[in-house]
Specification:
- The complex is a heterodimer.
- By secondary structure, chain A is α/β, with parallel strands linked by helices.
- Chain A is 47% helix and 18% strand.
- Chain A has six helices and five strands.
- In chain A, α2 links the parallel β1 and β2 (43-46).
- Chain A starts with a helix and ends with a helix.
- The relative contact order of chain A is 0.17.
- In chain B, α2 (14-29) packs across α3 and α6 (141-155) packs parallel to α7 (169-175).
- Chain B has helices spanning 3-10, 14-29, 33-45, 50-57, 77-90, 141-155, 169-175, 192-197, 217-229, 285-302, 304-335, 338-347, 353-374, and strands spanning 65-71, 95-102, 110-112, 127-134, 159-165, 180-184, 206-209, 273-276.
- Chain B has a seven-stranded parallel beta sheet with strand order 4-2-5-1-6-7-8, sandwiched between helices.
- The chains are: A alpha/beta, B alpha/beta.
- At the A-B interface, α1, α2, β2 and α3 of A face α1, α3, β3 and β4 of B.
- β2 (43-46) of chain A pairs parallel with β3 (110-112) of chain B, so a sheet runs across the interface.
Chain lengths: 142, 375
């Protein structure tokens, strides 16, 4: 690795918002991911439970995050995620935010979410290091 | 993050930087949330162009009231800030909040959790909430905070609240960027000796005994009151305490501060107030608002506010110079073969730390002397 690359790597502080949206109260996964991201050297903003799409958008815009990780285990992803994407678009934040979805998402829905602009969907059993590598590799260049 | 990398390194063209800065300034002044968010990111990252950015925003500042809130972890700062923001919003004022959480000294990572408590202002974009981590590696956190306050002020926020964990000197510096400092003291924070010890108490204009419904709250209030009335000198005057000339009642030398009620014809000293609140129910928030307003009035009436602003800018310039000179000298050290080479010579007793420092700073000294002779 060249010095230049090393320097770049060192200076790059990735900011993530880990968001629980909708009515489901299962936040263990979100906590584990927040913790793992922190240990990977990211700055993690955790939204807390039961956030509405508007709140998630507000947080993502104000915090100027590189990565928005949405955790949904309620099955309402087809309703909630598009609302968030619309909100990000409204504030001009859609293009340079890497949006990830975590949770139980049927294969059919994955394509829909991708069409909406979700970059990747992580289901049960996704490895932590895989996720961190993905974020490092794909965090938007601004 | 990447602003700087993209604009500064891969495209070193100054003009790109310049237009990016201009765009951001325009956006901030036009009230675009995205531009404000990006501006604060640039400030945090000290991305190329951030100095121009802050400089361009400065003329548009000076209208916001800045409140600093600090206190031990779990004292209820975030919850109280949320309720305060709500109260200000009800008055039709706009609010900016900067919440600082510690970063891991090992990985630089952080979990910034203050946002979770912002339950009263959800979906209200006129409360601009920004989490910042105390990134150890970049240093200059207090500078970054000051600059972020500048951005929120220029954006047009009426009230800016800086919230930080009251754990050390760094936090005290940050809170000093505020006009008014509120220190949260949870009940049962230890006996009165603890209170005298804790340096953070010296900077308070207001004490908030939060969780006042818990057992021990009365005692904490009592202990605070005793501490404040001990008249033991500057330490209880709040960091904005004006010195009064009147000697203390019982003949003690009032070096920095007179007895609190002896202002005479002079504008009275600020007597740090104690307010009791229960943040999660909103109890006592009105009292807190009244106390904050009273302090504001005092600041304006006594002329203390103007003095504070001047002191703050003086301190800011000094800090910036220190950082700049430090960077400049780091360059000079590199030019001279690096710090390790110098240390090798020191360890081998070929030279000593003072001589090395003198050598490194010599060109700067020479330059300054030359210029002052020219004048």
């Amino acid at each position: 690795m060249s010095t230049e690359q090393e320097r770049e790597h060192e200076d790059r502080q990735i900011r993530c918002l880990v968001a629980k949206v909708g009515l489901d109260g299962h936040d263990r996964g979100a906590h584990v991911i927040a913790r793992a991201f922190r240990d990977a050297g990211f700055e993690v903003i955790y939204s807390g439970l039961h956030r509405s799409p508007d709140e998630v958008v507000q947080a993502a815009v104000q915090e100027d995050v590189d990565v928005l990780g949405i955790s949904i285990l309620s099955g309402a992803h087809n309703t909630l995620v598009p609302k968030i994407m619309d909100g990000l678009r409204e504030y001009g934040a859609l293009e340079d935010t890497l949006v990830l979805v975590g949770g139980i998402v049927p294969d059919d829905d994955k394509a829909t979410l991708r069409d909406e602009g979700v970059a990747e969907i992580f289901g049960p059993g996704a490895s932590m290091s895989e996720m961190i590598e993905y974020v490092r590799a794909n965090a938007p260049d601004r | 993050m990447t602003d700087g990398d993209a604009e500064g390194r891969s495209a070193p063209a100054v003009s790109t930087d310049q237009s990016a800065v201009e765009g951001l300034v325009e956006g901030v002044l036009a009230g675009e949330h995205r531009a404000l968010a990006r501006t604060i990111t640039k400030i945090e990252n000290r991305a190329p162009g951030y100095r121009d950015l802050v400089a361009a925003l400065h003329p548009h500042t000076g209208d916001a009231d800045v409140l600093g809130v600090t206190g031990s972890p779990g004292a209820g700062k975030s919850t109280l800030v949320d309720k305060l923001a709500k109260a200000y919003r009800d008055q039709g004022l706009t609010v900016g909040i900067i919440a600082i959480d510690p970063a891991s000294p090992y990985t630089g990572g952080a979990v910034l959790g203050d946002r979770i408590r912002m339950a009263s202002n959800v979906g209200d974009m006129d409360v601009f909430f920004r989490s910042m981590s105390a990134r150890g590696t970049l240093g200059g956190l207090s500078t970054a905070t000051t600059d972020a306050v500048t951005a929120l002020d220029a954006f047009g926020k009426d009230k800016v609240i800086v919230e930080t964990v009251g754990a050390g000197q760094n936090e005290i510096d940050i809170v000093r960027t505020a006009d008014t400092v509120a220190v949260l003291v949870p009940p049962g924070s230890g006996d009165d000796v603890q209170m005298l010890k804790a340096g953070i108490l010296e900077i308070a204009d207001l004490f908030v005994v939060n969780k006042a419904d818990l057992e021990g709250a009365d005692r904490t209030v009592q202990e605070l009151r005793e501490m404040l009335h001990m008249g033991s000198g500057a330490s209880t005057g709040g960091h904005h305490g004006v010195s009064a000339d009147a000697p203390g009642a019982n003949g003690e030398q009032a070096s920095d501060e007179g007895e609190l009620d002896e202002g005479g014809s002079e504008p009275a000293d600020w007597d740090p107030r104690i307010v009791e609140t229960v943040a999660n129910t909103g109890e006592g928030v009105d009292d807190l608002l009244a106390a904050l307003d009273a302090h504001r009035e005092y600041l304006v009436a006594s002329g203390e506010l103007d003095q504070q602003v001047r002191d703050r800018y003086a301190a800011e310039v000094r800090t910036l110079l220190r950082e700049d000179v430090h960077a400049l000298l780091a360059e000079e050290i590199e030019n001279r073969g690096g710090i390790d080479a110098a240390v090798d010579r020191i360890v081998a007793r070929e030279t000593d730390p003072y001589t090395v420092a003198d050598e490194v700073i010599a060109p700067v000294v020479e330059c300054v002397r030359e210029r002052s002779e020219e004048d």
